[in-house]
């Protein structure tokens, strides 16, 4: 049986994934911010450009031209959401998928939080495009948040099936 103190802190071992996301995110942002001029675009592939842009808003430039109040709003919102995600990680005892989803989202949120606090905006540099249409630029942190969100939804969808299978198994054992 695991030691109570060890199990109480076992959720912390998942945070190495968040740390990796943060290091990769901040390293790539530093590279693009120090080697590209603002707005500079470089063709990489028929569907991908590198482009340096600054986003004072949220995902896909939501509230980007809101007048400045959004910086503090998104800082507070990120701190609140990250606290809730950390609590969810701490209380999660079973699902590895949920843990991975949470730490990816936490790492991405903290990477973008760093930008907001230090620079006043988020540094974006990945731009996907097809048929003359361009997706808003994004970064590694945004990618981690999106992957984490998809995994959260996947975990939520599959969860009832896991519980139903467990209940059916328990019921059939009780009948025998």
Counted by DSSP, the helix tally is 5
Gross geometry = globular
| Extended strand count | 4
Oligomer: single chain
Sheet bearing the most strands, described?
4 strands, antiparallel
Average pLDDT confidence is: 84
**Which strand order spans the largest sheet, edge to edge or round the barrel?**
1-2-3-4
Q: What letter string, H or E per element, gives the SSE order?
A: HHEEHHEEH
- Based on secondary structure, the structural category is alpha+beta
- Radius of gyration based on Cα positions: 20 Å
Please indicate the percent range of residues in DSSP E strands (runs of 2 or more): 5-15%
User: Which segments are poorly predicted (pLDDT under 50) over 5 or more consecutive residues?
Assistant: 1-6
The N- and C-terminal alpha carbons lie at a distance of 30 Å
- Structurally, the number of domains stands at 1
Helix content: 55-70%
Descriptive report:
- With 176 residues, the protein is an alpha+beta fold.
- Helices cover 62% and strands 14% of the residues.
- The protein contains 5 helices and 4 strands; from the N terminus they run ααββααββα.
- The chain has helices at residues 4-9, 15-35, 69-91, 96-119, 140-175; strands at residues 41-45, 48-55, 122-130, 133-134.
- It has a 4-stranded antiparallel beta sheet with strand order 1-2-3-4.
- Strand 1 and strand 2 form a beta hairpin.
């Amino acid at each position: 049986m695991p030691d109570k103190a060890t199990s109480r802190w076992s959720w912390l071992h998942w945070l190495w994934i968040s740390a990796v996301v943060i290091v990769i995110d901040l390293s790539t942002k530093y590279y693009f911010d120090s080697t590209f001029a603002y707005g500079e675009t470089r063709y990489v592939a028929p569907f991908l450009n590198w482009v340096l842009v600054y986003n004072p808003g949220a995902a896909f430039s939501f509230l980007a031209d809101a007048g400045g109040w959004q910086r503090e709003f998104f800082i507070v919102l990120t701190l609140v959401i990250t606290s809730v995600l950390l609590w969810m990680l701490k209380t999660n005892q079973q699902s590895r998928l949920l843990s991975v989803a949470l730490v990816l989202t936490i790492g991405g949120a903290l990477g973008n939080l760093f930008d907001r606090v230090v620079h006043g905006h988020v540094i974006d540099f990945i731009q996907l495009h097809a048929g003359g249409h361009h997706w808003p630029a994004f970064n590694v942190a945004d990618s981690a948040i999106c992957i984490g969100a998809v995994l959260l939804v996947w975990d939520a969808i599959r969860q009832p099936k896991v519980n139903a299978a467990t209940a059916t198994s328990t019921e059939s054992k009780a009948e025998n």
